Amino acid sequence: MPGLIKVGHKGADHVAPGNTVESFEAALELGVDMIEFDVMPMTDGRLVLAHDVEDSTSRTPMTLDEALDHFAAEAYAGVELDVDLKIPGYEREVVEGLRERGLIERALISSTYPESLALVRELDADVRRGWSVPRATRDLTEHPLLKLPAYGVVMWWRAGLPHKAARALRGGDCEAMMVHHYLVSRELVRRIDDAGGLLYVWTVDDAARIERLEALGVHAVITNDPRLFTAERPG
Q: For residue range 91-104, what is the model confidence (pLDDT) as tens digits?
C-alpha cells in the first residue's frame, strides 16, 4: 500500500499485548510507518503506557521514560510515533521527554482535548498535533440498548465534522485529524486535504475496510493488527 501511512495501535495489540515492548517489536517487524501508544498518569504521579485505569492496574506498565528510551534506539529510527494523551495535565513532561531524546521531529502528539494540543504548541511549536474525535471510552454502537441513539449521534457528528476539522486545521489548532472510521466521509477527506492537514483513521481491524479507506483517500490507518496491511484481498 504505497502512500498509506501504516500505524500500529499500541504497537500491534492483536499480535502481542499492547503498549509493551513485545507489541512494539512486533509492529516494527511487520513494517509499520508509525507506532501509536497511550500515556496516562498513575495516582503516584508516574506517567505510564496504558489506555485506561483498568489497563494500568491489570499489569505492570512501562513508564513513559522507559518507552521513550526504547524508541530512541537505532532500530526505531525510521518509525514515527503517535503519543496519545488520555487526559490533560502532563503535556510538559511528554514534550520534554521527546525533546531530550531527539524524538520531536518524528513524533505526533494526539489528544481528544483541544486545550492539551494548545499547550503542546506553547511548549514547542515544532511538535505536530492531532485532534482525536470523538471523545469516547467505548463503542456505544455495540451496546444492545444504546445502539440506535448512538448511531444518531454518529450521524450528527459525521455531518458537522468536515467543517470543524477544516476550521481547526486552518486555525492552527492541529496539523492532523485522528478520526474514528464511523465518522469518515468523502467530504471530510476533501476538506482536510484542502486545509493542508492529514487524516488518520482509527481503529480499523478489517482488511476490506482498510482498502476502502485507502481508495477514499485517507492519509493513514491505525490498526491493532498490522498484518492486515499486507493481507491478500479477495479477487
A: 999 999 999 999 99
pTM of the shown model: 0.92
Q: What are phi and psi of 40, to 5 degrees?
A: -150, 160
Q: What is the pLDDT of residues 116-165, one digit of tens each?
A: 999 999 999 999 999 999 986 554 445 444 455 556 667 778 899 999 99
CA dihedral 225, 230, 232, 233 (to 10 degrees): 80
Q: Residue 135 is part of which domain span?
A: 5-225
Count up the domains in the chain and report the number.
Answer: 1
Residue 143's SS3 state is coil
Is 235 inside any structural domain? no
> Residue 122 maps to which CATH number?
3.20.20.190
Please indicate, yes or no, if residue 234 is contained in any of the structural domains.
Answer: no
Calpha distance 130→198 (Å, rounded):
9
- 141: which 3 cell numbers? 454502537
